[in-house]
Amino acid sequence: MRGAGRLSRAVRRLPWPRSLRARLTAGLVVLLAVSCAAVGLAAVVELDGFLTQRLDEQLSQTGTRFPASLEHPGGPSDDHDDHDGDEHADTRRTATGTFGARLVHGKVTHQGLIRSGDPSADLRVDLTAGDAGRLARVPADGRPRTVHLSGLEDYRVVASAGRDGDVLVVGLPLEPVEATVHRLELVAGIVFGLALVVTGVAGACWVRWSLRPLSRVAATATRVSELPLASGEVALPPRAPDADPRSEIGRVAAAFNRMLGHVEDALTKRHAVEERLRRFAADASHELRTPVASVRGHADLALLHPGPVPPGVTRALERIAAESARMGAMVDDLLLLARLDAGRPLEREPVDVTRLVLDAVTDARAAGPGHHWVLDLPEEPVTVPGDAHRLHQVLANLLANARGHTPVGTTVTVTLASEGEGEGEGDGEGDGEGEAGAGTVRIGVHDDGPGVPDDIRSGVFERFTRAEHRRHPDAPGGGAGLGLSIVAAVVEAHGGDVDLDSAPGATTFTVRLPA
Hints:
This protein has helices spanning 2-12, 20-62, 65-69, 87-92, 129-136, 175-210, 212-225, 248-303, 311-341, 353-367, 388-404, 454-457, 483-493, and strands spanning 99-104, 107-113, 145-149, 153-161, 167-173, 349-352, 372-376, 383-386, 411-420, 439-447, 497-503, 506-514. The protein is α+β, with helices and mostly antiparallel strands. The chain has a five-stranded antiparallel sheet. A hairpin with a 2-residue loop joins β11 and β12 (506-514). α2 packs antiparallel against α6 (175-210). 22% of the residues are buried. The model is unreliable at 74-89, 422-437 and 469-477 (pLDDT under 50).
């Protein structure tokens, strides 16, 4: 099991092709390689069998004249040969390389080899004990067999029984057969190798050409995936080019284009609804500012009446003034959000963030004397380009959120730091303020309160998000739930981002602004 697991892991680590084009090309080459290997193997086996059969036929025609003549070289043979006449002349017609041996009682008594077509030229051949043993083990049944002789390589031999109890062995070399087969293997390997290379290159080009419509669909899908589809007006890229609808790729492209059309219609309708809502919010906020201010002014004017006013009426007027002030603040917030959603640009002036933090914490300390306020500021002032009033509103909302959602005695820590490429240094001719260079300015508001409830944590920056029971039971009544949404909108309008990290005893809002 362990060996199988290691083999499986080793196979998974192999550099398998990942793209469809590479897989198709590799599959084509592999199939061709298997086909070439099968054809080559069949050709080699068939040629080897054919040449061996021809060699066996030649061996059968050779007969036992040559081994029979070894007992009396140079003279007439005895009755081992069935034919009359000059045996020496017959052996002259024996093929070069013919091997002959005579065995008596399993021992080689005579052996010879025709080296030049003339048996009288050189009949001597040296056989080892192993060669003699292999020859002795060849059955004398007249059937060809392959025997390896140490000094002569492989031979195809036939053993036959002689007339006087001896065994006559005649053989022909397998070297011509093996050389022809090896040459076929070499030629087939070269030809098939070239065919694989040419097929691989041509197949890669063909697969690439065939998959061009699919590549266009993938490119269009990639461009669509890079578009911000969450909000705002979205311009989808051109549709994927039409392909043959009878092919699979053509059907995929057509379905993809239809899907893009549906998505574009849905995004257009959503954008129209968003625009109507923004215009409604902006118009309603703008139209409500005047009557709300009028109600508040009349309430303040009634409270200044010099004559006697019943206490109940005074209390009612005070509530009217307070609620109208609260409604006026809500209307201002809605109007601000509507303008930010519409993309109205903010002011872009150098803002001393250090001064903003000091002022905001001072105001918060006055509004919440029961909390412990801690500042962690850098030694040098930090500036960012932006709208000073809106950035002050960001800090004020974050500190008001910390004050209103934590019990008395909570420690709130405000930190300011520069991150990124570092801080700029004076060049000796400036004002020596040491403003932050290119990078990021980070503002953190941390408290050790009970934390943000889990059910609203994911949507804490959404509009009208409010905790039902606040973060502690003694907290005063909350606002409209727009404070943190204004923080997110203003920070985003400055090109920054804000995030929340909350747990019981540790809640941190982090604002990052480009410096």
